[in-house]
């Protein structure tokens, strides 16, 4: 009976939470960002580019178990996700933030919290120097991407930039934190009005950044549980192992054993590093260490089998075991 | 001897309506010129000064300024030559046979090349390359190219720029429309010449 209830509960919550992502409405009209951003750019950027990210994200998630995930969950484990999810989830998050922090001058919130002002002063000396750092990050990002002001897990401000639609929540980026300000430097953000003159677009956009909203985002980020999630999520050895596991095991499932036969040594090396690595505090438990040791042993067995030129079906069976062990580690980590 | 902006073999408006004159002019005189200026600055006074661009591209992997601007210089040089106001239509001769052999038909080739160009996320290029006498399609990010030996290899004989600056004024978010238009201006005679030379 209890099981039946939980099945019912799970399927109901799946129904309840598996809702599609939606394009957020802009707080101001397309024309109200003139002359710094022209109405045509705003309209295409919002109704075409952002809409396409939303549509393609929903398409990529439809019918998968990820359909119930929050946007933050999808972003955090970006290295485990398909390109379609990484790119479109990023595109949706990044643009949603961008619209929120932009406002025409007369509509801007002027209240900047004292704590935010103090943080800027402490780390950048002045608002002008912070703007300079942001401009520098935005103008030197080669190709498509974003410049960011983020709150890092140690509650500091940091200016950084990412390529394409990646962002600092993702585990694929070096500088992680919660973005409180993003500047889009894809050419589609400015080309109709500024063409190759990205610098002019950047000088213009500072007239539209609503620092009152950025200030509120700073205050919220400091108490956002996501911040401690990001701190815990820096177990690189797990990510490294998972990458090689995925690149060798999944081809086996499709009958291609070449990657495994050529990389079983590398898989073992990553398993050894994984097993010897120190898990983040919340995951540092005896059962995790036990599962890691089993996984290492299993990878050693596979490497030996490859050395003895074992048959495909034997390798598939042993790799399936290793894969299950890996997921056991992962599950133990989800407390 | 520093690198210089090549003159286009046709007028800026010659590729209209497929590629508009303003895009061609900005692309050539601003974007391409900036890559060249920045490349010359990046190699000035270094061991790379005086080397050919091909030699430079083979060793620039860990030097972002050289890699990005050197790639930008070389890629656009090839891109301009791949197009012509008298272009479009179908390839002929040996190149046509090689395309049929590698992709089954010209239509299949077109679809596969368009797919590589459409699915390159962000900024980058789509390429048709010759590797060991065989034709292959691939794509690279930003201003990387097959000479740098990552992702794509071989000799590039056809290049398509899919940075937004290559099409945004005329096509905005409609990259697939731009890609279809490109096929109306491909200079197959030039591509065939590159193919013959690459095959050896």
Please sum up the structure shown.
The complex is a heterodimer of chains A (335) and B (200). Chain A is mainly alpha-helical. Chain A contains 14 helices and three strands.
Task: Describe the structure in your own words.
The complex is a heterodimer of chains A (335) and B (200). Helix content of chain A is 60%, strand content 6%. Chain A has 335 residues and is mostly helical. Chain A has a 3-stranded antiparallel sheet with strand order 2-1-3. In chain A, a hairpin with a 5-residue loop joins β1 and β2. In chain A, α11 (236-253) packs antiparallel against α12, α11 packs antiparallel against α14 and α12 packs antiparallel against α13 (286-307). The longest helix of chain A is centred in the first third of the chain and has 23 residues, at 39-61. Residues 7-16 of chain A have low confidence and may be disordered. Chain B has 200 residues and is mainly alpha-helical. In chain B, 48% of the residues lie in helices and 12% in strands. Chain B contains 8 helices and 3 strands, in the order αααααβββααα. Chain B is globular. The model of chain B has no long low-confidence stretch (mean pLDDT 97). At the A-B interface, α2 of A face α1 of B.
């Amino acid at each position: 009976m209890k099981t039946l209830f939980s099945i019912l509960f799970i399927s109901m919550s799946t129904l309840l939470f598996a809702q599609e992502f939606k394009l957020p409405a802009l707080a101001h009209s397309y024309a109200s960002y003139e002359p710094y951003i022209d109405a045509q750019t705003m309209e295409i950027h919002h109704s075409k580019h952002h809409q396409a990210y939303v549509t393609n994200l929903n398409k990529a998630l439809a019918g998968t178990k990820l359909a119930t995930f929050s946007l933050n969950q999808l972003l955090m484990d970006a290295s485990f996700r398909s390109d379609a999810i990484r790119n479109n989830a990023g595109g949706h998050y990044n643009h949603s933030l961008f619209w929120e922090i932009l406002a025409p001058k007369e509509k801007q919130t002027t209240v900047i919290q004292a704590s935010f002002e103090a943080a800027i002063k402490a780390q950048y000396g002045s608002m002008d120097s912070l703007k300079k750092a942001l401009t520098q990050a935005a103008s030197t990002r080669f190709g498509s991407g974003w410049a960011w002001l983020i709150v890092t897990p140690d509650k500091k401000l940091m200016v950084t930039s990412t390529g394409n639609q990646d962002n600092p929540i993702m585990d694929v980026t070096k500088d992680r934190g919660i973005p409180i300000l993003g500047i889009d430097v894809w050419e589609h953000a400015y080309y109709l009005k500024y063409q190759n003159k990205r610098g002019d677009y950047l000088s213009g956009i500072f007239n539209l950044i609503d620092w009152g909203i950025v200030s509120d985002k700073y205050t919220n980020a400091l108490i956002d549980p996501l911040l401690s999630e990001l701190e815990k999520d820096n177990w690189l050895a797990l990510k490294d192992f998972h990458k090689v596991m995925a690149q060798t095991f999944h081809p086996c499932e499709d009958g291609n054993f070449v990657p495994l036969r050529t990389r079983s040594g590398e898989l073992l090396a990553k398993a050894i590093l994984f097993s010897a690595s120190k898990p983040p505090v919340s995951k540092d438990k005896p059962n995790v260490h036990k599962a890691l040791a089993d996984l290492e042993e299993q990878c050693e067995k596979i490497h030996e089998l490859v050395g003895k030129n074992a048959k495909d079906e034997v390798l598939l069976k042993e790799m399936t075991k290793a894969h299950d062990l890996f997921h056991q580690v992962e599950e133990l980590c989800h407390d | 001897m520093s690198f210089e902006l090549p003159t286009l073999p046709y007028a800026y408006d010659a590729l209209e309506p497929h590629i508009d004159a303003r895009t061609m002019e900005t692309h050539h005189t601003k974007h391409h010129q900036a890559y060249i200026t920045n490349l010359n600055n990046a190699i000035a006074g270094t061991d790379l000064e005086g080397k050919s661009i091909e030699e430079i591209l083979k060793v620039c992997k860990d030097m972002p300024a050289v890699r990005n601007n050197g790639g930008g210089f070389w890629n656009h040089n090839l891109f301009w030559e791949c197009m012509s106001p008298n272009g479009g239509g179908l390839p002929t001769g040996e190149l046509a046979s090689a395309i049929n052999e590698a992709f089954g038909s010209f239509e299949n080739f077109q679809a596969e090349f368009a797919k590589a160009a459409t699915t390159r996320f962000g900024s980058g290029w789509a390429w048709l390359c010759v590797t060991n006498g065989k034709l292959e399609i691939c794509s690279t990010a930003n201003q990387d190219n097959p000479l740098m030996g990552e992702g794509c290899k071989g000799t590039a004989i056809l290049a398509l720029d899919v940075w937004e600056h290559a099409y945004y004024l005329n096509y905005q978010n409609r990259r697939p429309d731009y890609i279809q238009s490109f096929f109306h201006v491909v200079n197959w005679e030039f591509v065939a010449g590159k193919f013959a030379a690459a095959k050896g």
